[in-house]
Design a protein that fits this description.
Helices cover 53% and strands 7% of the residues. By secondary structure, it is an alpha+beta fold. Among the domains are: 169 residues, Neurolysin, domain 3; 65 residues, no CATH class; 158 residues, Neurolysin, domain 3 (Orthogonal Bundle), CATH 1.10.1370. One of its GO terms (cellular component) is cytosol.
Length: 715
């Protein structure tokens, strides 16, 4: 997941500053640190507050200067000036955002709520300002006379569209209403996310007797005992709702009642009728978003959200999701029959429920392929996995990594840091890995950054990129051994990091790609994770150092598609729920989002044993913002990534240098100068085909199909 920082400004310009020296690091001319990375340990909550407020005030002055400028509006004095405004504000946002999501405290959460309405109002003050918009529009309407290059033209287009989408064309009464809606939506999204973080880290299932944990790997038992001791329950075992803690129970525990307890606790986060309940917040968000869309002239919120994405409209999204859903449900039903057979082998005759799915599917997988994922994990020690990730980046792009953990500022003691060295020997970027769960860290995994790539004159300012995950920690005498799924996640997030390392644009306003394109670099990177050549580099037994046997590699390959019915359906269920909520043309005042979710999934014939990957009350992607009416993006991008990896395979060499150079040049480097489909066709030479995705998931039964200009059509 590529996590976007909240930002009221367009810009990140890190040139010289005239700010006076101050005890507040943000207000000093220099941090005095390597590569001007923020001195995290010196920054207080009051420093953040002061810098945010001062940053907003400075940007207001910069905006006023653009408006007061009596010169004829042109690209430099209006568009570039606007793009580069808010230097201080962006500077502090890029530090606070990652900290607030990975090291959340009562202080950071309180500051987020305090500033949320101010950020919303500040952004509206810019994009609803009629005098500023008049200047932007004048430049836009007369752009031909400025002789702009492609990047400059794209920046102008982005700025103009951002004003239009920000409500610049509304009348005064409508603008006032939009301000109100933006403020309410922003605060509700923040509250949703804070509630979910609390529910994930502070919802526990406690076990009193060791025999109740039969089947659970020893490392997970030790981790549960440690968690219990840390929470004043020494002699017991506790599981919170971070996946490294609760997933092994669902996959390995023989105790059905315990699996049921953990399953309910995980899927009902935000749905427990307590002070952290997210049902009403979700209903309000759906309602307010629809009101905003209609105010902007759209019939539903999805239409507003999709207007500037590759998919363009909801019909194209549903067409893709429905096309994959049919074979996925068929595959899931086959898996359910395997599960029923395993239940009978255990001497039972009950109909499987959701809490039986992972456990018995794992048993069925072992029976079919004789693969024990717990044994596989013994070859997947986290530091070795990272070496494998770096190996792939080196083979494809010539990158090397020089560890600087003792040199760079530390924002979290378990995080590591590196200089990323390009093939020409120059430092390309700076990278932090933050892999372990802790109190105050959000669930899941994401890529963020403490600074984006930019330019200071002709000098490229290096990005500071962070991978944040919740991986399995070391336990007892075992190091941090990872599951196959965790390894995939590590490769995924590093794909986002590669995108950030290599982005090379001159204007911050053209750095972003469409939401449904952004997962291409991350998802294609997953394809190398379990290739035999790559496994031989990093998959070494944590005790003996033995390279993973080819026999086991073959079992991993053979079994890779097993369980894809479940995995695909749970993903599609979440994507469809997201779309269904945001294509509503009217929202009933008594809407119960959980009942709505259940009814819609039942209508589609989705097996009752498969919940959406995220239920509405813990669906941070859509209710927390960022992927609203956009969770489909992972599937949309998977069409691209499977087809793109096929391009490598067609050469006979998955590390083909020519293909890697093209991928870097046309996909990773341009930022958003070109639209997504143009970038993809520049790389592939044609539009993407969907058959590689279906084949990759073991779902290909029909004739090959192709994605054409956002439409899925038969060839």
């Amino acid at each position: 997941m590529k996590k976007c920082l909240f930002t009221a400004s367009f810009a990140l310009a890190l040139g010289g500053s005239s700010m006076a020296q101050s005890t507040n690091p943000f207000l000093s001319e220099s941090y005095g640190t390597p590569y001007e990375i923020a001195p995290f340990e010196k920054i207080t909550i009051d420093n953040y507050r002061e810098a945010f407020l001062k940053g907003m005030e400075e940007q207001k002055q910069e905006i006023n200067a653009i408006i007061r400028n009596r010169a004829v509006p042109d690209f430099e004095n209006t568009i570039v000036a606007l793009d580069r405004s808010g230097e201080l504000l962006t500077k502090v946002e890029y530090v606070f955002g990652p900290i607030a999501s990975s090291n959340s405290t009562e202080e950071t959460r309180a500051l987020e709520k305090e500033l949320s309405p101010l950020f919303s109002a500040h952004s509206d003050d810019i994009y609803l300002n009629p005098l500023l918009f008049a200047k932007v529009k004048e430049v836009y309407d007369n752009q031909k006379k400025f002789g702009l290059d492609k990047e400059q033209t794209k920046l102008l287009e982005n700025v103009y569209k951002r004003f239009i989408r920000g409500g610049a064309g509304l009348n005064d009464e409508q603008k006032a209403e939009l301000r109100k809606l933006n403020s309410e939506i922003s605060l509700l999204e923040l509250t949703f996310s804070q509630n979910l973080m609390h529910e994930t880290n502070n919802t526990f299932v406690t076990v009193d007797k060791l025999e109740e944990l039969e089947g659970l790997p020893e490392a997970n038992i030790e981790a549960a005992a440690k968690m219990a001791e840390e929470n004043g329950q020494k002699g017991k075992w506790m599981f919170n709702m971070q996946r490294p803690s609760c997933n092994p129970v669902l996959q390995y525990c023989k105790n059905r009642e315990l699996r049921h307890r953990v399953y309910d606790a995980y899927y009902n986060r935000g749905n427990q009728n307590n002070q952290y309940d997210n049902k009403e917040i979700s209903r309000k968000l759906v309602t307010l978003r629809l009101q905003k869309a209609k105010l902007m002239g759209y019939e539903d919120y999805a239409s507003l959200a999709l207007d500037n994405r590759m998919a363009k409209n909801e019909q194209n999204v549903y067409r893709l999701l429905d096309q994959v859903l049919t074979p996925a449900v068929e595959k899931a039903k086959e898996e359910l029959n395997d599960i029923r057979a395993e239940i009978k082998k255990d001497g039972y005759n009950f109909e499987p429920e959701g809490w039986d799915y992972m456990y018995y599917l794992n048993k069925a997988k072992q029976a079919k392929y004789a693969i024990d994922e717990d044994k596989v994990s013994e070859y997947l020690e986290i530091n070795n996995v990272l070496k494998g990730i770096f190996y792939v980046a080196n083979k494809l792009y010539g990158l090397t990594f020089r560890e600087c953990t003792d040199k760079f500022p530390v924002y979290e003691k378990t995080a590591q840091s590196w200089e990323v060295i390009d093939k020409d020997g120059k430092v390309l970027a700076l990278f932090y890995s933050d892999y372990y769960p802790r109190d105050g860290k959000g669930a899941g995994a994401w890529c963020t950054g403490f600074r984006d790539q930019s330019y200071n004159g002709n000098e490229r300012v290096l990005p500071v990129v962070v991978n944040v995950c919740n991986m399995t920690t070391a336990s007892g005498d075992k190091p941090a051994l990872q599951s196959i799924d965790n390894v995939t996640t590590m490769f995924h997030e590093f794909g986002h990091a590669l995108h950030s390392f290599m982005c090379d644009v001159h204007y911050p306003g053209v750095s972003n790609v469409e939401r449904d394109f952004v997962e291409l670099p991350s998802q294609i990177n997953e394809h190398w994770a379990f290739e035999p050549e790559v496994l031989n580099i990093y998959a070494k037994h944590y005790k003996t150092g033995e390279v993973i046997p080819m026999e086991l590699v073959k079992k991993i390959e053979e079994s890779a598609k097993y369980g894809q019915g479940f995995a695909t359906v749970e993903y599609l269920a979440a994507s469809l729920t997201d779309m269904d909520l945001h294509t509503l043309k009217e929202v009933p005042s008594d809407l119960n989002v959980m009942e709505f979710e259940s009814q819609k999934l039942k209508e589609r014939g989705i097996p009752s044993q498969i919940y959406p990957r995220y239920r509405v009350t813990n669906f941070s992607h859509t209710m927390g913002g960022g992927y609203t009416a956009g969770y489909y993006s992972y599937m949309w991008a998977e069409v691209l990534d499977c087809d793109a990896f096929q391009a490598f395979k067609e050469t006979g060499d998955i590390f083909n240098k020519e293909m890697a150079d093209k991928f870097r040049k046309y996909i990773l480097t341009p930022g958003g100068i070109d639209d997504g489909m143009t970038m993809y066709k520049n790389f592939r030479g044609r539009e993407p085909k969907i058959d590689a995705l279906l084949k990759n998931r073991g779902l290909l039964k029909e004739e090959p199909q192709t994605l054409i200009n956002g439409d899925i059509e038969k060839r």
